[in-house]
Amino acid sequence: MQYLSGIDDHRTSTGLDNRKMLMWAFLGSDVMFFGTLIGTHLIYRNRNLSGPQEEILSIPITTISTFVLLMSSLAMVLALAGIQRGNMGQFRFWTAIVCIFGSIFIGFQMFEFTEFAAHYGLTPRTNLFGSTFLVMTGFHGTHVAVGILWLWSILFASYKGKIHQGNSLQVEIAGLYWHFVDIVWIVIFGVVYLIGAYGAEGRALEDAHHAARAVGIG
Amino acid sequence: MAANIGILKRPVSTDGVWGWITTVDHKRIGILYGVSAFIFFLVGGIEALLMRVQLAQPDSTFVDAGTFNALFTMHGTTMVFMVVMPAGAAFFNFLVPLMIGARDVAFPRLNALSYWLFIFGAILMNFSFFKAAFPDVGWFGYAPLTTSEYTLSSSTDYWVLGLQIMGVGTTAAGFNFVITILNMRAPGMTLMRMPLFPWMTLIVSFLIIFAFPPLTIALTLLLFDRFFGTNFFDTAGAGADPLLWQHLFWIFGHPEVYILILPAMGIVSDVLPTFSRKPLFGYTTVVFAGAVIAFLGFGVWAHHMFTTGLGAWATAAFAGATMAIGVPTGVKVFNWLATLWGGSIQFKTPLLFALGFISMFMLGGLSGVMHAAVPVDTQQQDTYFIVAHFHYVLFGGSIFGLTAGIYYWFPKMTGRMLSERIGKWHFWLMFIGFNATFMPMHILGVLGMPRRVYTYSVDQNWAGLNLFVSVGAFIIAVSILLLIINIVRSARKGEAAGMNPWAGATLEWAIPSPPPHYNFAVIPTVRSQHPLWDEEANAVEPPPLPAHGEPHMPDPSYWPIVVAFGITMVAGGLLIWQANTWLGLFVIAVSGFIGMRGIYGWVFEPVAEESAERVHAHH
Amino acid sequence: MTTPTAHPQNLAATLRRLLYFALAAVALVAVLASCDTPLTTFEPRSDAAQRVHTIYIFVIVAASIVGFLVLAAMAYILWKYRERPGHTAQQIHGNTTLEITWTVIPILILVAIAIPTIVWIAGTTAEPDEDALHIEAVGHQWWFEFRYPGLGPDGEDLVTANELRIPVGRQVAITLEAKDVIHSFWVPQLVGKTDMVPGRTNILEKFTATEVGTFYGQCAEFCGSAHALMRFRVHVDSHADFDRWVENMNADPVPPEEGSVEAAGARVFTNFCARCHTIYGVSTEEIGPNLTLFGDRATLGAGILDSTDENLKAWVSNIRDIKPVLETTNAMPTFYVGDPLVDQLTEAQVDQVVVYLKSLKLR
Amino acid sequence: MTTEHAHVEEHNHPGPRQYVIIGAILAVITLIEFGVFYLSIDPALMTWIILILSSSKFLLVVGYFMHLKFDDVRFSGLFFAPFLIMVSIAVVLMALFFNLTR
Ligand code: HEA
Ligand code: HEA
Ligand code: CUA
Ligand SMILES: [Cu+2]
């Protein structure tokens, strides 16, 4: 053991930034969080005693909202690329786009929720599907909302000169969070919507065929 | 009041109560954790003693059924979440930065937030006593008993919310220590030169950040069921499956038991070399075994559910996985014995407790392996045999290990020695009392005594053994009193410890006791696993402060406690909401605002710079 | 200080001594286990319990031997290498051969434990015997309901409560359900426990009782305030006794003589109790335990009291003095006898209904 | 732009151009998923197709947008270790609840 002088107190053992590492660790933990929620939803699939379930999911609408969220992720990397090159205009433009697209996504979700409640009477209290689906997507929506707030604050702070090329790491970290929220949605869209509703839609179609045949028009 | 003598002085005083409330110093936070854990240990212990009085004789009417159920629920919850975990956190906080050669943890304010969330959550849960009654659903709160259909009283709400808040605090601490240990090590302190205690802290921190989310979800679902009428655990009305709760709880719960034991294993792995005067045998294997235990720990949860009708394949698979954990654990035990082998063993109090740990933990582990044999578990599950198992691992393991840590590092923390004489009395009384209390429980289990019964009848013939057990519990209580006496005595007239009273090998012994707030005047550069042994650095005096003065340390901050308060009071608002919607909403709104304001203030507060405005804003 | 002299001459002898010691400890437990504790897991009285017991003993002996060996090794090391003048610690860092040894040996021991475990688990999936007696046990807060499909009146379920009757030497296949929260079915001398989970149907290990007698059972999963007082009995009868009981359960009860105390009691029953309790031929509600042939039951209140007149009287008068049941809609109400403000039954009425219930006996 | 240049770009930091390409690929995959949903095929097959398509989207976002492909492996460890644990747990849970194991 030695006592060498001139050791920088702010160096890190790995050379990686503490905050960025914190964000990755947090995302790892959040994987467990969403994994458990999605798992709960899948476990409870098709166990409802009554009420609507996956057949009410609208794939076309959700495809659009998924697309919007994906594009917000693209905007996010473009914003980061902007600030990393010191191009504040590019950064601000794309960050604003992220916030707007994120808000559009939330809008879709609010539309979906109200639609479910109004047309199918689906609330978290209705049945297991209502509970697991709405709580799961609700938590995701909350994550999106937090992300929007965060990016808004960053955008705002950039006008005050508190965010600049020198601390673009702040943007990078917020970006990691934003992309994570996006990939959670990729999983939810694939597993819960597409795979989940496929059987249900199929059943609905079959029912429709049967019904059509029964009334002699099929 | 700002910059004087060339460096930035703290704008807010670190003295007095406010100094402690706003502290972000890892050592002070460690002490806060430690003291709180000890107080809760007395609370949980008194709860245990009350249970033992009730069970000392058949058909006893000392307490009624409801009270007894509340006692074991709060005893279990307290001991697990308010004693062993925070006691572990106390050591993480105080020691890890010292042992890896850092000035503080990676995120000092987050660290303070963790503590305040823990203590507020614990207080909230215990507050149920004044509002409703203590929670009485068992420490693992099986649904559907915990749903509002079967538990009308709001005590379960306190349990859920209290646990949730403590969980958030713990998870935050987990992040902090992962980053601290990965990123804040002194130059030359590679991972494979790190002492075992920081190693186990690292592993435990990973367990925490990956295992707590399932609990968070489980509690959230239950909370939503109870508050908003969702159906996650509504078996009768909605077709929910009660096993969902059990799975989620134990997916958390089994890693949790390793969260409880690994810090103690780390302590023991550092105490043994010091007192056998030789390095840890098989360092790499011991580290690796710890990691394997943690990893396997995620794949065995269903061994708590062998009797729930999992199906043959699943049962067999989980039994096999559970047994597999015995192997890395055995490796650790044997490496500890080999560390003693060939040594020159000094029987100081810390070592005695470490030896108590090895022997008693091993016995508990062996009964754990018996439970893993499923047919045997069908006879043992939910009997006192299980109670014996987990007290052997939790008390014989965690508590003995942590006590070894107290005796070992007390001199470092306070600068004073504890009395060896009282220490040895403490050890032997505790060792005897412990075995008198928990050994007969195996027999009670064999004789079919179920756990969680507030009474039993004469014809069941368990009276004699139960009386014996209860007497044992009081012997433990006396031994704890000796510990208290020892600490008080030492505070008054304890012998001064000096830097390295045990001639230890690790970095924390290279600085004064108690350490200055900046820990190391100059950050050491490490070249081996035993920096103070290998290079006769014992003789090296720590260098004086460099000419430019004290190192730059983070300033105290109000925001952690403000944020913690906001979060806790949102939970409080939810509880009020149950009784009075508008008042509840009001409290939620106000405390939500306080919390948000706290986060905002936090984000824009520099870690360490003068900020006179803040002082104004808050006085 | 002297040098250690206590270390063993001969490893084999030590091992043998340790084995004896372990066996002696197990024997001690076994002796303690046999001193008339009705819930003991160490006196199996069925094939299933016997199978488990064999594994239990094997595992306990294996664990004891490992435990004693490690403790002995530790004691030896501590003695041998205690701090002495002129003795310094050897600076050893590790040894690969040793590491491998103490990884492999535990693996072997664990495999030895895993094999009977897995064989046993595989065995539990077997179909029940052709002539097995099928029973459904249902857990309620805080009592057990037992249904025998097909054996009851008109080929319906035959229902009884808290005292299960089974024939000796015939396999019983029990399925488990729960009405409210999770309970667990456990008769240590006959069969290990399996939980009763609401919304699920669990299958108890099939077992064949090998001895006539009465065995104690206990709910083993915490199920709320009166969990401790949720017990039951299993009567293992001869085939003849069992058949006679089934027949009697199905026979219409003899109506009490007009004007007798029993008749008065029957009226009280119809007025106050029939809305929850079934007595075949008298009432049909199944909220509480089925009380047919209650006069022949040994116990009262889910196996917690002897079914004496006094106990029964106390039970009916004010159940909450005896059992901490909650005031839910399906719980047995307290009739507050003797409390002038709220009483619902007079003492005389209670006496009458007690006499009536006790008169419901086998013929 | 020469191939070599592209190669270098790949292995250092992708620029806006690459991001836009990735974004386009993501959009196309989503469109394919949407199309697959309306095919009448065996549900098991459909499940696998969607799983594969979704995972590729997942990996593209993690790898490129979140830079994990170019960043320190320790970040990958922090993220994928719990991911694998969680996926295994979820698979086991589903097997248990659908009683595949009885
Ligand atoms: C510190 C906490 C802790 C630790 C470390 C452990 C460790 C282990 N536990 Fe324990 N356990 C609990 C705390 C803990 N447990 C608690 C609190 C409960 C009850 C929860 C509740 O219901 O309230 C419980 C319950 C519990 C059950 C459920 C029982 C039931 O309810 O029916 C099971 C079942 O398999 C089990 C098994 C094990 C095993 C196999 C280990 C292994 O990790 C042990 C490994 C150690 C050894 C094996 C000893 C050393 C090894 C050697 C000397 C080598 C040679 C050994 C062999 C060849 C076998 N435990
Ligand atoms: C680390 C964890 C831990 C620790 C240390 C203990 C310690 C003790 N436990 Fe613990 N116990 C659990 C964890 C723990 N327990 C858990 C998880 C459960 C399951 C709960 C459930 O089923 O839900 C349980 C359940 C449990 C039961 C079963 C209850 C039941 O199923 O009905 C019993 C019964 O005897 C018991 C007894 C004891 C005793 C006597 C001690 C003693 O060792 C306690 C010793 C401590 C003291 C005696 C305190 C000292 C106090 C003084 C010295 C007084 C001084 C006073 C002042 C200064 C004011 N415990
Ligand atoms: Cu029913 Cu315990
Ligand atoms: Cu476990």
Question: Which features characterize this protein?
Answer:
heterotetramer; B: 619 residues; mainly alpha; Cytochrome C Oxidase, Chain A; 0% strand; disordered C terminus; C: 363 residues; alpha+beta; 6-stranded mixed β-sheet; 3-stranded mixed β-sheet; 13 strands; elongated; disordered N terminus; binds heme-A; binds dinuclear copper ion; binds copper (II) ion
Describe this structure in words.
The complex is a heterotetramer of chains A (218), B (619), C (363) and D (102). Chain B has 2 domains: 1-20 and 555-619, no CATH class; 25-537, Cytochrome C Oxidase, Chain A. Chain B is 67% helix and 0% strand. Chain B is built from 19 helices and no strands. Chain B has helices spanning 16-21, 26-55, 65-100, 108-131, 155-183, 196-228, 235-238, 243-276, 283-296, 312-340, 349-372, 374-380, 384-414, 420-446, 463-493, 531-534, 559-579, 581-603, 612-617. The longest helix of chain B is centred in the N-terminal third of the chain and has 36 residues, at 65-100. Residues 1-11 and 610-619 of chain B have low confidence and may be disordered. Chain C has 363 residues and is of the alpha+beta class. Chain C is built from 7 helices and 13 strands. The longest helix of chain C is centred in the first third of the chain and has 34 residues, at 47-80. In chain C, strands 1, 2, 3, 5, 8 and 9 form a 6-stranded mixed beta sheet that branches. A 3-stranded mixed beta sheet of chain C has the order 4-11-10. In chain C, strands 6-7 form a two-stranded antiparallel sheet. With 102 residues, chain D is mainly α. Chain D folds into 2 domains: 2-71; 72-102. In chain D, 77% of the residues lie in helices and 0% in strands. Chain D has helices spanning 3-11, 16-37, 43-65, 73-97. The termini of chain D are far apart. Chains B and C meet through helix 3, helix 9, helix 10, helix 11 and helix 12 of B and helix 1, helix 2, helix 3, strand 7 and strand 8 of C.
